[in-house]
Specification:
The protein contains 19 helices and 13 strands. The chain is elongated. The chain starts with a helix and ends with a helix. The protein has a 5-stranded mixed β-sheet with strand order 5-1-6-13-7. The chain has 3 domains: 141 residues, D-Maltodextrin-Binding Protein, domain 2; 91 residues, D-Maltodextrin-Binding Protein, domain 2; 207 residues, MetI-like (MetI-like fold). Helices cover 60% and strands 13% of the residues. InterPro entries: AA_ABC_transptr_permease_3TM (IPR010065), ArtM/GltK/GlnP/TcyL/YhdX-like (IPR043429), MetI-like (IPR000515), MetI-like_sf (IPR035906), Solute-binding_3/MltF_N (IPR001638). It holds the Pfam family SBP_bac_3.
């Protein structure tokens, strides 16, 4: 039986892999109509990670939030020249290139350096801005780290997968390089002395220094070719017509020195954010995060239970095929991380069917929850005494009625605490959907941190909100558990 299950799992994995690879390959081999598609649609879809001021960040003005920054102005210029509307999608920085590879967007912008490694996966426009490299240090260490030479053997932080990470590895002897996904996390690590310095683009370093007196900036000392290490716009491989059209806009941007104008505009917006950095001022951000977190959890709970019941019943089926499929699904889902599942549903299946980020997150969390709920329900069914089954049979009940009216009600009563724990876990685990740009509580938390330059307080607020949600749910579940015991 185990060999059959393993064989089924292998077939499923091979099928899914071939489906995804085949879809990507077919799209890659298609004729270049990238510019034509954008113009026919009338929209230029762009992905960015709005947590990297002054390149891209969110501004909170009059309780309303919008994405601004130098890169956003560059993208608006490009869209205007193409005669189309700019549509902005937000997601984590490390998902930007995947988004354009899988057709979720036409281009990605975000202070992206066109390294040789990245050029193997995507196409790049010409460099539109070269800001240079710097290091952020704590103000109290200004005499300790006067230049990059003093950083030898130090602990250096850099955003994972960026040029700064690679440069620190190669150019600073004896340094221990620590990578994180978000610059906000790295700044917090610096301020709490987890790292000695943070490798970062010069404009971003200047933005932090202007808005946080506890930080200082020192030059990187790197001697780099600006034409290779500046910021460029990324496109899907083979998008030559769109790249060429965008490059025409970049020529104008450089000729007219528009990036200086865009940076000045970004600076004004940053002042708006730092006028009031109280968490109450950003309550709408947290409220939206809570709303999406609860919505995802409720949907995942409903479909998770539905999927769990079906899988559990399949496990008790006399049909080997049904049992094999249920076992294969449960083992496969439980054996892979939820983050990978979320990314696969959004990017992998999204190659064939374009599923919105929120729906993708709900699907992935529901499918994941279903596998765990199935095992909980299976345990609950096994916990029902055999005498109950025999009594139902003696009354002439069919197997379907027996399961519906006798076994499942008792099973759910037995497993209610375990199901409650699964529901509570869903609220916390659903935070993983932030990696694909779903504006849940974790996503909003990171936006507030980037906008206010406050590292700890937004985290504390999110912790309190998560606690309140789980505490209230626990009380509700305990109430119904008490009623069940009383009824029994």
């Amino acid at each position: 039986m185990e060999k059959k299950v393993k064989a089924i799992i292998q077939v499923i994995i091979m099928f899914v892999t071939l489906l995804t690879v085949g879809a990507i390959a077919s799209q890659a081999s298609a004729a270049d109509n990238s510019l034509q598609k954008v113009k026919q649609r009338g929209e230029l879809i762009m992905v960015t990670s709005p947590d990297y001021p002054p390149y891209e960040f969110q501004v909170n003005k009059g309780g309303k939030s919008r994405i601004v920054g130098m890169d956003i102005d560059v993208a608006k210029k490009v869209a205007k020249d193409l005669g189309v509307k700019l549509v902005i999608k937000s997601m984590n920085f490390d998902s930007l290139l995947v988004a354009i590879q899988t057709g979720k967007a036409d281009m990605a912008i975000g202070g992206i350096n066109p390294t040789n490694e990245r050029r193997q996966s995507v196409d790049f426009s010409d460099i539109y801005y070269s800001g240079g490299q710097s290091f952020l240090i704590n103000a109290k260490d200004v005499n300790k780290f006067k230049s990059v030479k003093n950083l030898r053997g130090a602990k250096i932080g850099a955003q994972t997968g960026t040029l700064q990470y690679g440069l620190a590895k190669k150019r600073i002897p004896g340094a221990t390089v620590k990578g994180m996904d978000k610059s906000t996390d790295l700044v917090l690590a610096l301020k709490t002395n987890k790292i000695d310095a943070l490798g970062i683009e010069k404009p971003s370093a200047e933005a932090y220094v202007k808005n946080d007196p506890t930080l200082k900036m020192i030059p990187s000392g790197y001697h780099l070719n600006k034409n290779d290490v500046g910021a460029a716009i990324a496109f899907k491989k083979g998008s030559n017509s769109l790249v060429n059209a965008v490059n025409k806009s970049i020529v104008q941007i450089k000729k007219q020195h528009l990036t200086d104008k865009y940076l000045a505009s970004a600076g004004k917006y940053m002042k708006v954010n730092t006028v009031n950095t109280s968490m109450f001022h950003y309550w709408t951000y947290f409220a939206k995060g809570v709303e999406y977190t609860i919505l995802i959890s409720l949907v995942a709970t409903f479909f998770g239970v539905l999927i769990g019941v079906i899988l559990a019943l399949m496990r008790f089926s006399k049909q080997k095929l049904f049992r094999g499929l249920a076992i294969s699904y449960t083992e496969f889902i439980r054996g892979t991380p939820l983050m990978v599942q979320v990314m696969f549903v959004y990017f992998g299946i999204g190659v064939v069917i374009n599923i919105p980020a929120l729906i993708s997150g709900m699907i992935a969390v529901s499918l994941n929850s279903g596998a765990y709920v199935a095992e909980i329900i299976r345990g609950g069914i096994n916990s029902v005494e055999k005498g109950q089954t025999e009594a139902a049979e003696s009354l002439g009940l069919t197997k379907g009625d027996m399961m519906r009216y006798v076994i499942l009600p008792q099973a759910f009563k037995n497993i209610w605490p375990a199901l409650g724990n699964e529901f509570i876990s869903l609220i916390k685990e659903s935070s993983i959907v932030s990696i694909i740009g779903v504006t849940d509580l974790i996503y909003q938390l990171n936006i507030v941190r980037a906008d206010t330059y406050r590292g700890v307080m937004p985290i504390f607020v999110a912790m309190v909100l998560y606690f309140l949600m789980t505490f209230l749910l626990t009380r509700l579940l305990n109430y119904y558990e008490g009623k069940m015991k009383h009824a029994g």
